[in-house]
């Protein structure tokens, strides 16, 4: 693997550019390089692994039982990636992507304090997932963070929250983080489970697929570990409260008709993960509302290719299936790209893909059961309290959004004009789903009818200084003069 540190080291063109070095991106790179493609992997992190295997090449966590066997399985995939013939640019940001008029794409890359445009015949966007917004009163207080953020701090820096910790929400990651933090010595005073008891009835039709998947034993092991904490189920309301210093001091939770307050120093929130669709949205990929995952998902085919020819989205960015399925999806995407570029015949592609696809489908089979079992309640997706902040970047509240909807605003993009929702640094990652579902609730229509933000490049922050470093050409000069 060839490491690149600045934009001048980038070639002008590659057969395949891969955005993201998580399980899907790394597997895609290995498969594509083996097929003889010139491959560039762009990753914002400083080392491969993505979110799930973050820090695996240099984590200071030496007791392997803390992070668990599932985390350390990433060593094999990272080792394979580091042996392959791909070019790898850590600390690189892909901030624009568009068809370039010929057969392929123009990608804006920020690396080493400068930017440059490069060409790629095919692109695999392995952008992964992010945590679903969890808008409760007080969720912007210092001391409140997501469970995923706490997990990143543990993996990358062996940091454990100090003092009294409360973990709240639902979903498999909630149990995983609880188990990891307990093993690392965190003082977890309570785990507040917000899953609705009725979810079991919705999940039962999907039980056969779940039993065929490997999730069952993994889940049972996690539940047993997490249950060592003070586990409080059937929580129907949450509120984070500040102390005299303006930081988190207490968490109020409601169970039945009783509200209880717990003193705490850190509150970790989590209610599932959703595909990171910002790049797909900005490029113009067709997407659908997935009512099982309660999110928008890019429309992809059997080779992970989107509605834009040559652009593929494997892994959790194309639908939540988990790390192992993501790696297999990356392999399928690379095989599809290699066949479209003429490096593999269709017969060769299909033959190599057959066992991969069979395992991919086996691993994916249990996902519908988990989506139904841990479906987050509407009360935690659509805030009822008017003062609850929805858009953290612009500090827009649920009450303000309902007010402009009552005044005739019909969708998220019109909402931007009135309230600037989704126009901050996160570009809607932290508020997009909440805005969609809140507007749907206020108007009495479906989330699909409301739609999502329409994004434009740059879809990641880039400085004016970096843009000024772009080499000028005749087309750029004419564009400015006009």
UniProtKB/TrEMBL annotation:
InterPro entries: BFD-like_2Fe2S-bd_dom, BFD-like_2Fe2S-bd_dom_sf, FAD/NAD-bd_sf, FAD/NAD-binding_dom, Metab_Enz_Cyan_OpOx_G3PDH, Opine_Oxase_asu/HCN_bsu. This is FAD-dependent oxidoreductase. Residues 389-440 form the BFD-like [2Fe-2S]-binding domain. Residues 14-326 form the FAD/NAD(P)-binding domain. The keyword ATP-binding does not apply. PANTHER family: ANAEROBIC GLYCEROL-3-PHOSPHATE DEHYDROGENASE SUBUNIT B. It comes from Bosea caraganae. It comes from the Bacteria. Keywords: Oxidoreductase.
């Amino acid at each position: 693997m060839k490491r690149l540190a600045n934009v001048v080291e980038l070639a002008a063109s590659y057969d395949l550019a891969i955005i993201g070095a998580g399980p899907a991106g790394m597997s895609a790179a290995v498969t594509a390089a083996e097929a003889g493609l010139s491959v560039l992997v762009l990753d914002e992190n400083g080392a491969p692994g993505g979110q799930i295997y973050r820090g695996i090449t240099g984590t200071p966590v030496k007791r392997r039982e803390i992070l668990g066997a599932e985390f350390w399985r990433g060593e094999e995939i990272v080792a394979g990636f580091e042996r392959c013939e791909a070019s790898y640019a850590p600390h690189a940001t892909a901030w624009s992507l568009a068809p370039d008029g010929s057969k392929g794409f123009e990608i804006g890359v920020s690396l080493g304090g400068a930017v440059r445009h490069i060409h790629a015949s095919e692109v695999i966007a392995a952008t992964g997932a992010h945590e679903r917004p969890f808008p409760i009163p007080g969720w912007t207080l210092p001391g409140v963070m997501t469970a995923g953020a706490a997990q990143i701090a543990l993996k990358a820096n062996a940091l454990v929250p100090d003092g009294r910790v409360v973990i709240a929400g639902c979903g498999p990651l909630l149990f995983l983080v609880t188990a990891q933090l307990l093993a690392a010595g965190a003082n977890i005073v309570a785990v507040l489970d917000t899953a609705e008891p009725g979810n079991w009835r919705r999940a039962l039709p999907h039980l056969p697929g779940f039993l065929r998947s490997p999730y069952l034993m993994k889940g049972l092991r996690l539940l047993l570990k997490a249950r060592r904490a003070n586990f409080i189920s059937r929580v129907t309301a949450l509120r984070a409260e500040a102390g005299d210093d303006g930081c988190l001091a207490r968490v109020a939770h409601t169970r039945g008709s009783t509200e209880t307050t717990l003193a705490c120093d850190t509150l970790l929130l989590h209610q599932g993960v959703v595909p990171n669709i910002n790049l797909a949205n900005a490029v113009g990929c067709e997407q659908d509302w997935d009512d099982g995952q309660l999110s928008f998902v890019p429309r992809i085919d059997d080779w992970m290719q989107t509605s834009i020819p040559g652009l593929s989205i494997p892994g959790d960015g194309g639908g939540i299936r988990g790390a192992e399925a993501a790696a297999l999806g990356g392999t399928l995407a690379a095989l599809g790209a290699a066949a479209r570029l003429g490096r593999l015949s269709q017969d060769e592609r299909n033959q190599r893909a057959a066992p991969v696809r069979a395992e991919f489908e086996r691993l994916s089979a249990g996902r519908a059961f988990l989506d139904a079992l841990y479906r987050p309640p509407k009360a935690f997706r659509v805030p009822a309290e008017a003062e609850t902040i929805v858009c953290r970047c612009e500090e827009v509240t649920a009450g303000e959004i309902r007010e402009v909807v009552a005044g005739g605003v019909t969708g998220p993009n019109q909402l931007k004009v009135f309230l600037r929702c989704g126009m901050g640094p996160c570009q809607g990652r932290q508020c997009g789903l909440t805005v969609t579902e809140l507007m749907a609730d206020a108007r009495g229509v479906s989330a699909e009818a409301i739609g999502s933000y329409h994004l434009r490049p740059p879809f990641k922050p880039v400085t004016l200084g970096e843009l000024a470093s772009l080499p000028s050409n005749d087309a750029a000069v004419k564009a400015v003069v006009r």
